[in-house]
Write a structure and sequence with these properties.
This protein has helices at about 20-35, 35-40, 50-60, 65-75, 75-85, 85-95, 140-155, 160-180, 185-190, 195-205, 210-225, 230-235, 260-275, 280-285, 330-335, 340-345, 350-360, 395-415, 420-425, 430-460; strands spanning about 100-105, 115, 125, 135, 235-240, 245, 255, 285-295, 305-315, 320-325, 370, 375-380. The protein has about 475 residues and is α+β, with helices and mostly antiparallel strands. A hairpin with a 4-residue loop joins strand 9 and strand 10 (about 320-325). The protein has two domains: about 20-225 and about 390-460, no CATH class; about 230-380, no CATH class. The chain is globular and about 70 Å long. It has a six-stranded antiparallel β-sheet, sandwiched between helices. A two-stranded antiparallel sheet has the order 1-4. A two-stranded antiparallel ribbon has the order 2-3. The protein has 20 helices and twelve strands.
Length: about 475
């Protein structure tokens, strides 16, 4: 039914299986019989050169940005982990796999969850990064979430006992949410969402120790209403010599592009506008492009080709859109022949847009994809009501709650794939994973530490 050797190809036919939900659940039990929980949670030591893998990924990036990228990655083991998704993608292929196909985030670490606006201007919380999205195994997302919680918690100074308790709760929450989702109708799954007040209500049912999170969320509500294009314009632009608004340069992170690249971006924008939702296409007819700048963001994405477009409306309002390079899956860059990796990356923008619209309960209406200069991109609003929770500011109780919410939402996202009942079949009666995944996570966290040291030493050697 399913060829696990092609998990990395974003072929939606792999999740279109003509079976009833009950039959799919039985198929999941069959997968459990072939690959037990004990095997799935067994850590298989990896043998590869992390520095060589990172260098291969970075060879596709803007070279002048690499020193800043390295500076960000060296900030901590968790920052390094965020910036090297290709390593874990590669390693997971060498571990036991459930071989249950569904659309996964591919990079579901704790900092890739955040707040974003629905078209109705509600503030929702969920996964917010889909650059590594693909058809894959559910446990790949869960294991990345677990390792990230371990690394982030170490930075916060939590004890091993506390962190093991968090890891146990993450897997337990995922299992329970899978059980609950499997009972929901297809329409309830489709329309499910998690609004900020849902999180506040959940906190209010807890004891006083979780009130730190409550205070953080109320600050986010206030701050998010001020996060829009007009605020960005005030902060990031100035009047140019021609009397028009222009982005402020801060090279090499923020840098205006040359005339050739400017024309390429305009052509890409026209292609995007021709293919975006019809109502948005009509709305964009009110705007003209005022300026374009290359503007790098994040850790893992830092060094890729990212641009901001400033659009001015016919009544002088503003819209800032982000054009972000859609890289081929990093695993493909490492393992596939160059031509195959390029072929797979040609439609990477469409892959990311499809995954985001599937895994998020409600997505940016301006979300769309395009191509120019031989590369694939996706376009979205820049920072529109987008906020996140700073993990290093959380006490243990709030950190525990945050990770529990992330795990629950991960299960919700996975249940947007038609094959999701197979997860329920696999996990039924498998409480053993709650403890066994702790062992796997702690073992892999040590691998991240070794990789981090190797990377840091390689930079010192090259100084």
């Amino acid at each position: 039914m399913f060829d696990s050797s092609k998990l990395d190809i974003f072929d939606l036919k792999k999740i279109k299986i003509n079976r009833t939900a009950k039959e799919l659940e039985e198929a999941g039990k069959e997968k459990q019989a072939k690959v037990s929980s004990e095997q799935l949670a067994k850590f298989i030591p990896v043998h590869r050169d992390p520095v060589a893998a990172i260098q291969k990924t970075e060879s596709k990036m803007i070279q002048e940005l690499l020193p800043l990228r390295h500076e960000r990655m060296l900030a901590s083991k968790f920052a390094f982990f965020r910036g090297t998704a290709e390593l874990m993608e590669q390693d997971l292929k060498d571990q036991y796999q459930s071989h249950i196909p569904l659309i996964i985030c591919g990079d579901a670490h704790v900092n890739n969850y955040g707040f974003y606006a629905s078209p109705e201007r509600q503030l929702l919380f969920g996964l917010n990064d889909f650059d590594e999205s693909r058809i894959g195994n559910w446990e790949s997302d869960l294991k990345r979430l677990l390792v990230s919680a371990r690394l982030a918690g170490e930075e916060n100074g939590f004890s091993d006992e506390q962190l093991n308790s968090v890891l146990h709760l993450i897997t337990k929450t995922y299992r329970h949410r899978v059980k609950r989702n499997n009972k929901l109708s297809l329409f309830k799954r489709l329309y499910s969402s998690y609004e900020i007040h849902d999180m506040i209500a959940a906190i209010d049912t807890m004891n006083d120790s979780a009130h730190q999170m409550n205070k953080i969320l109320h600050k986010i509500i206030k701050k998010s209403t001020q996060s829009n294009s007009e605020h960005i314009v005030k902060k990031m632009t100035k009047i140019g010599e021609d009397g028009q608004l222009r982005f402020i340069e801060n090279a090499p992170r923020a840098k205006h592009v040359d005339a050739r690249k400017y024309d390429e971006i305009l052509q890409g924008f026209e292609q995007y506008r021709d293919n975006v939702r019809q109502d948005i296409r009509i709305f964009l007819g009110n705007f003209s492009i005022t300026d374009v700048i290359r503007y790098s963001v994040g850790v893992g994405s830092f060094g890729t080709r990212c641009y901001l477009i400033l659009l001015t409306g016919n009544e002088k309002s503003h819209l800032v859109l982000q054009i972000k390079e859609a890289m081929p899956l990093r695993y493909n860059l490492l393992r596939l022949p160059t031509k195959e990796a390029i072929k797979n990356g040609a439609m990477a923008g469409r892959r990311i847009v499809t995954a985001q619209r599937t895994l998020q309960s409600s997505s940016d209406p301006f979300l769309g994809s395009t191509r120019f200069g031989g590369r694939s991109y996706y376009i979205r609003q820049f920072r529109d009501m987008k906020e996140s929770i700073k993990m290093d500011k959380l006490d243990y109780e709030s950190f525990n709650l945050y990770c529990q919410v992330c795990s629950s939402l991960l299960a919700m996202a996975h249940f947007q794939s038609p094959t999701a009942p197979m997860i329920r079949g696999y996990l039924k009666g498998q409480k053993i994973l709650d403890d066994r995944f702790i062992e796997w996570t702690n073992a892999y966290a040590k691998q991240v530490s070794r990789d981090y040291d190797a990377f840091r030493n390689s930079l010192r050697t090259n100084e």
